[in-house]
Amino acid sequence: MTDRKKQLGANASKELGMSAGSAAHKLTRRLLFTYVQKMSDDVCYRCGLKIETYETFSIEHKKPWLHVSPDLFWDLDNIAFSHLMCNVKAANHEGNISKRIVGEEGTSWCSGHRQFFPVDRFHKNRSTWNGLHRSCKDCCRKYR
Known about the structure:
- The protein has two domains: 3-97, no CATH class; 101-143, no CATH class.
- The protein has five helices and six strands.
- It has helices at 3-16, 20-38, 70-74, 84-91, 137-143; strands at residues 57-61, 79-83, 93-94, 97-98, 107-110, 115-118.
- The strands form three sheets. A two-stranded antiparallel sheet has the order 1-2.
């Protein structure tokens, strides 16, 4: 990349408050959501409720394609729109089998160490299913 291109990218990032690539992705998502709304296709495939904002809007595959067929990834008949949280919830469950790693009472899985530790070694996190951070306090300190 030339120095001129780097400078243009730095200027764009400075003015947009994010990288030019992130800004382009966000703009594309906003445009797509606007067209989905105009076609009255802004209803969640999973829960059936209206998708209100582009921040909660996601594109998902009706049938899983990974380890099945790459053709399903590109098949437009296999595409649906949903709330981001509905999509994430569905991705975390395959055939109603949870992908959560659950250990003995009073323990939680540390994704950094890849083992169970007592819950007092984790920060609280209300947005996770068990109310604890995914990594232990030691891992969090290491990554800071």
